[in-house]
Amino acid sequence: MSHEVVVIEGDGIGREVVPAAVEVLEAFDLDFEFVEAEAGDATKAETGEALPAETYDAVGDADATLFGAAGETAADVILPLREAVDSFVNVRPAVAYPGVDALRPETDVVFLRENTEGVYAGHEDRLSEDLSTLTRVVTSSASRELAEYACEFVGDGRGPAGDPDEGFTVAHKANVMRETDGRFREEVLAVADERGVDADEELMDAFATKLPLDPTQYGVIVCPNLAGDVLSDLAAGLVGGLGLLPSANVGHDNALFEPVHGTAPDIAGEGVANPTAAILSAAMLLEYLGHVEEGTRVRDAVEDVLSDGPRTGDLGGAAATDEVTAAIVDRL
Amino acid sequence: MSHEVVVIEGDGIGREVVPAAVEVLEAFDLDFEFVEAEAGDATKAETGEALPAETYDAVGDADATLFGAAGETAADVILPLREAVDSFVNVRPAVAYPGVDALRPETDVVFLRENTEGVYAGHEDRLSEDLSTLTRVVTSSASRELAEYACEFVGDGRGPAGDPDEGFTVAHKANVMRETDGRFREEVLAVADERGVDADEELMDAFATKLPLDPTQYGVIVCPNLAGDVLSDLAAGLVGGLGLLPSANVGHDNALFEPVHGTAPDIAGEGVANPTAAILSAAMLLEYLGHVEEGTRVRDAVEDVLSDGPRTGDLGGAAATDEVTAAIVDRL
Ligand SMILES: CC(C)[C@H](C(=O)O)[C@@H](O)C(=O)O
Ligand SMILES: CC(C)[C@H](C(=O)O)[C@@H](O)C(=O)O
């Protein structure tokens, strides 16, 4: 079966790490049709639009998309693209890799972030000279859909413990946002209960204290959109930064994969960017398209190279992007 | 000049640590009139109300209030009490104390959290079976008032560096909440500019990654209400937890002081709670009422005892609350 995969390099180091990830995908004998598309600051400078309609449509029509990073226009690119793939969940693993300097090397968590609503569905209004409002939206349907996904995710042993009994933790702020986060919390816990999945809960502020104190308490964390944004970035800080972390925006029959890092303007164009996060995003893409064994092989090769292979500057090495990529391809 | 100070122990270890803090205040030859008032879970069980009108009124009429902690009813108690003192800023220092096991002992930051609006001014509605909304509120007036306070705070050398040139950092999510956090960001930066105070900015998610990676980059952080709640709790996790952290809810001619920790039901009633956060909150109260030298003496005594005095169980010791309190009073 052939897969149509849209490839958007975007800006900055996106132009270096996405080709590296494509090289890894091409190393397998799989039938991919890659379609290149444009988005980001450079595209805006050229065409007047950060996300041209052709790109939006191509992403919507594809089987999956691999996206790099966008600069100033990041929100204008990534938020509509999440919508283009009809993504209801953003999957964000944060694990400390061997040989990488991490504040909490024992961290091994996956965030399942609601990807359609909360403040991101924000209707904002300037009501007077002095006052602006944002209408935050929470629905039972989106909360339940996320929870169903979470139950399958842990049930399939895809959580860090690999054990369906591990269950998940819901992080929220329902003591203050009683109606909206109250609804989220209640629906997520109800679905877990119906499915016989263990679920506990934390207030998101308490979670922000406890995660650095002891990350081993947590495995899969289910949260509203902005909570997931901030808390998963916090976890990134505990495993050594954003340089290695992939993510998946999963929809009903489409998905978009992106490294968590940005455009890294300070090193862009020098060929020294760390391609690992993009390559691990490609591993998630492989798994999503049903090539689970290939996904595992990529992950194993990455860990191998991190243990004793060439390293880029962010990890204290001096290797170029293509040396690291070649080493990973070599060990597939 | 006599000061009327309302004292609310609340629930759990609040009943142990607040009397300890009062003992410290009484050790000085100052003219305090302490007024006891009730609030919290136990009060609700007895009277039907977590926050009786007499307590609300007493707090509003006093010069300052010292509050312990409340259990399940925390939000019903603390949010109206912040309003009773007309508090526009929540001051939350997070510093690692000597001899305390901290993930990032070099952390030394102060959060200045907006204390009246954002999602906390939340108008929530259940619009249908499926959908609820929350209206988040941001005004220029509250943003500017917070910024004016921040400029005075750093200008007076009250930031961690003690240096007016250190300026402050604004943390926000204006790339998504463009109108509301956009307004907040713009007004705060405008006030800093008018006052000649250095200010830089971070997206709150990027801040959550960077703070654990290198807390020494930051000093005073100015943020919207919920951002301040979560990010200051994250900082608490870096300095070893909530056990030692005080906070101040400052209004125009009134203020409320509270330890950041909760009721600790697991150890409540045993006389072994760590009184440090409550005592440091009393130090902030002393400073607020103009007794700056006495505040400094409390802080110094606390550091002294943390270095080589008796310790409670949370810090690996076996001392009782009153032993630690006596040691602190002894070294004033
Ligand atoms: C760029 C921004 C809109 C985005 C978000 O807030 O979701 C980013 O922070 C992320 O987490 O992918
Ligand atoms: C109890 C709760 C309402 C409160 C808040 O969210 O402000 C608490 O978390 C705090 O930070 O003081």
UniProtKB/TrEMBL annotation, chains A, B:
PANTHER family: DECARBOXYLATING DEHYDROGENASES-ISOCITRATE, ISOPROPYLMALATE, TARTRATE, ISOCITRATE DEHYDROGENASE [NAD] SUBUNIT ALPHA, MITOCHONDRIAL. InterPro entries: IsoPropMal-DH-like_dom (IPR024084). It comes from Halorubrum trapanicum. Belongs to the isocitrate and isopropylmalate dehydrogenases family. The keyword Oxidoreductase applies. Coiled coil: none annotated. SMART domains: Iso_dh. Keywords: Oxidoreductase. The lineage of its organism: Archaea, Methanobacteriati, Methanobacteriota, Stenosarchaea group, Halobacteria. Signal peptide: none annotated. This is 3-isopropylmalate dehydrogenase. Pfam families: Iso_dh. Its EC number is 1.1.1.85. Residues 4-328 form the Isopropylmalate dehydrogenase-like domain. It is an enzyme of class 1 (oxidoreductase). GO terms for biological process: isocitrate metabolic process; tricarboxylic acid cycle. SUPFAM superfamilies: Isocitrate/Isopropylmalate dehydrogenase-like. It comes from the Archaea. One of its GO terms (molecular function) is 3-isopropylmalate dehydrogenase activity. The keyword Oxidoreductase applies.
